Amino acid sequence: GENVEQHPSTLSVQEGDSAVIKCTYSDSASNYFPWYKQELGKRPQLIIDIRSNVGEKKDQRIAVTLNKTAKHFSLHITETQPEDSAVYFCAARDFGNEKLTFGTGTRLTIIP
Amino acid sequence: SQTIHQWPATLVQPVGSPLSLECTVEGTSNPNLYWYRQAAGRGLQLLFYSVGIGQISSEVPQNLSASRPQDRQFILSSKKLLLSDSGFYLCAWSEETQYFGPGTRLLVL
Question: A46, A70, B71, B107: least surrounded by Cβ within 10 Å?
């Protein structure tokens, strides 16, 4: 089955700087890669996703890049703000599979 | 638009008591439905998923069970709770993108 590894497990960034979270996956058939943000005590919320036919996707201060050859994808947050502090989960799924495989999460702390 | 509901929001139960958590989805038909558990400060553990009425796939053998009596209703049950069942229980639905419900925080004492 699919295995997703996520690094780092914790990340502290000065407000205004950029943050990068990286995930690798094992199944080359995976073709859908969402990212979720979970604030303390809340549900995970989808913030961005990418499909394997695209190398990069941006939404304001958030971007995701995908390298299919190396089987890794990354979340980039620019101009970080205190409200970006949360736990971020990456995930992967292959076409026809009903399940997402999640990474173990990254706790991002923005230092004011 | 689609919405997902879970109840109760919080629950405190004694060890050995039964459990029933309910999840309903509105605004969509025949969604895939999922139950996850999240221990404090940990990741998302998939417990069950369902692709249709009466169809349940179990990911982790344990004292929990799931049922889908209606297209947009998903129920998580236990006959006897264990201390280790404490956690944040999340229901989710998907057609392609997966969306989570608000969760039920369960404390077993």
Answer: A70
With beta carbons under 8 A apart, name residues in chain B contacting A105. Answer: 42-43
Please name which of A71, A89, A74 lies closest in space to residue A25, comparing C-alpha atoms.
A71
Tokens of A54: 């695209």
pLDDT in tens, A49-60: 999 888 999 999
Which DSSP string corresponds to A30-57? EEEEEEEEE-TTS--EEEEEEETT-SEE
Please judge whether A103 and B43 are an interchain contact, meaning their C-beta atoms are less than 8 angstroms apart. Answer: yes
Q: What are phi and psi of B8, to 5 degrees?
A: -75, 175
Tell me: cis bond preceding A8? Omega within 30 of 0 counts.
yes
> CA of A43: which chain B residue's CA is closest?
B102
Q: Which residues of B touch A100 (CB under 8 A)?
A: 98
Tens digit of each residue's pLDDT (9 = 90 or more) over A33-52: 999 999 999 999 999 999 98
Q: CA B34: distance to chain centroid?
A: 6
Q: Residue B44 is nearest to which of A42, A45, A102, comparing CB atoms?
A: A102
